[in-house]
Amino acid sequence: MAYLGQIAFIVIVGIASVILTKRIRRIRQNILLGKDTDRDDQPSARWRTMLLVAFGQQKMFKRIIPAFFHFLIYVGFIVINLEVLEFVIDGLLGTHRLFMPYLGDVYLVAMNIFETLAVLVVLACVVFLWRRNVQKVRRFHAQEMTKWPKLDGNLILVIEIILMFAILTMNATDQLLQTRPDSGYATTGTLFFSSLLMPLFAGLDTSTLIFVERFAWWFHIIGILAFAVYVTYSKHLHIFLAFPNTYYSRLVPKGQMDNMPAVTKEVQIMLGTQPENGESDTEEEVGRFGAKDVNDLMWTDLMGAYACSECGRCTSECPANQTGKKLSPRKIMMDTRDRLEDVGKQLDKGENGLEDGKSLLDDYISREELNACTTCNACVEACPININPLSIILQMRRYVAMEEAQSPASWNAMFSNIENNFAPWKFAPTDRFNWADELVTENRKAETEDRTND
Amino acid sequence: MNKEVRVPTMADLVAQGETPEILFWVGCAGSFDDRYKRVTKAFVKILNAVGTKFAVLGTEEACTGDPARRAGNEFLFQMQAAANIEVLNGYEIKKIVTACPHCFNTIKNEYPELGGNYEVIHHSTLLQQLINDGKITMKGGGSFKGRKITYHDSCYLGRANNIYEAPREVLEALDADLIEMKRCRTKGLCCGAGGAQMFKDAEPGNKEVNIDRTEEALATGAKTIAVACPFCMTMMSDGVKNKEKESEVAVKDLAELIAENNQL
Ligand code: SF4
Ligand code: SF4
Prior knowledge:
Bound molecules: iron/sulfur cluster
Number of strands of chain B: 8
Largest sheet of chain B: 4 strands, parallel
Oligomer: heterodimer
Shape of chain A: elongated
Structural class of chain B: alpha/beta
Radius of gyration of chain A: 30 Å
Helix content of chain A: 55-70%
Order of helices and strands of chain A: HHHHHHHHHHHHHHHHHHHHH
Distance between the termini of chain B: 10 Å
Strand order of the largest sheet of chain B: 2-1-3-4
Strand content of chain A: under 5%
Radius of gyration of chain B: 18 Å
Largest sheet of chain A: none
Largest interface: A-B, 76 and 74 residues
Number of strands of chain A: 0
Structural class of chain A: mainly alpha
């Protein structure tokens, strides 16, 4: 009987680990459906970016109020996880407050810090719930923020509040039990915040108190495990993926579009300028030009889709979105993730998910959205974790232009102007230098006028 | 008082066995667009006035391919790039200045991978250097003194290449009263023309981007909207016209403002 708790604990942790491992494997495989791209250069610059942007929340602080409350949750999350360590070891060994005898007074201080953070996290969650549901901050209420994305945003905040209350309840009942000699609970000293909750439970008899204390303990640890699994389906995956996503961010100027070496090669062949020994290159598979589906994108784009926190900072800066066009860079990221998840589900069933008659283009992202982008990079600049929605847009435009030749008619006209007249407008290339003659004539005229005026 | 302005081409200079310090890349808008030709001319007058040894390609220049690339036509872009790089490398060009942020971005960031390596600067940077070096001194009796000017950031200078200060320093040198719009610098609102939007109608929405931006610029009370990009020039001018403010509010490029100030 004595080991029942430990066995139950191990079974629960075991089940959670199996589910988690499967989910992580799935997500990893999904991300690796993308094309390879070299992002291993300049490690020191990459570490710096990650430390500043993900660890240091640098870009969050462009908006100070959410940054402050987000920071509370962020620190709370990291620190409270230290307490979870004790939970897990206690659970495995069947002990209670294992660290206390070793840490002595430090334990009391640490517990008080944890509780303070728990209270601050609750505060931050309440503020965020208020911003989402009462204040209705605009970026949380776009066309793509209905149903699951909306629920997801609220759910996580409620879960966090409940989990924090579980900790406080546990500590409150624990402290009451310490006053009851028959319970055998060791004395921690006063924990400020949870002791405020003590009157709520003071009337209960010892066995009920023990039940409540144990219930809160189990609730918290199971809650955390369930939360971990939930996160893999949620926009809250950003709490982990923000780190690799910033590490692997683009380090070149934002305006620089990625080159297509396959096209360079074809152009060289067309112009007869390919390097002498270039021929012997093993014919690598060229694949599609541009992106029609998720596997045509780069793995960094796909990681970005899983890392996206749906905060909508990109969309709220997007000129197309601000003027009522359908394009929303956040939706581009959400669609990419949805498509990836759908493909992954089918792969799990043993089907070839990519050949299900659907594709990211048209079934998820429309051409109207793609065409509305001004490539202004406002979304890239705004994203607090360096996601690049523009990268996906540009790769999809390439597919439409080169594989399908289905660009808007006026773009096709622009293409043929460039091809025939070497300018996007229909002017004769021989007129390109006319401005210089005009300048000289105008200048002479001005000079003569000057002289007559003198 | 005006001296003859000269617009030497690379071909001429090479024939005379000379090399210029810098190549002025005019760009398609600078060559063909009636409004932006005035910017080209103003800039050439400045180059003449300060005695910079420059040259242009003339009819040997062609579109950099930027709009083709952004619209997805990588083939066409690379064909253009290959042809341009051949010309530039043929003349052994080292340094390029251009008044177009799109040409600037493409030649600076995208041509190197295709074999074109040059030092490329935008005209706002060159103007700033000329002012700092004392080569351009502000004359004209401070005709801009206290005049309200607002500067519209070009996405391809700002976010794309982190050039925010050079244009502003040029404006400050005019002793003008520079008023920022709320959305400026990293948060600047696009004029709506980049990414090849210039060459097609906008998708349906509830407003045109350039109208939104013009409203913001006009709200500052500025009588001059300064720009540093041909597309921004077109979009903002159209916006001002749309608001029927063209008699009160001027849209001007940095080069024009300096040329005007110095009565070039
Ligand atoms: S780059 Fe495109 S998607 Fe991103 S903000 Fe600009 S217009 Fe919107
Ligand atoms: S892409 Fe970045 S800015 Fe946009 S919603 Fe996702 S996390 Fe937020």
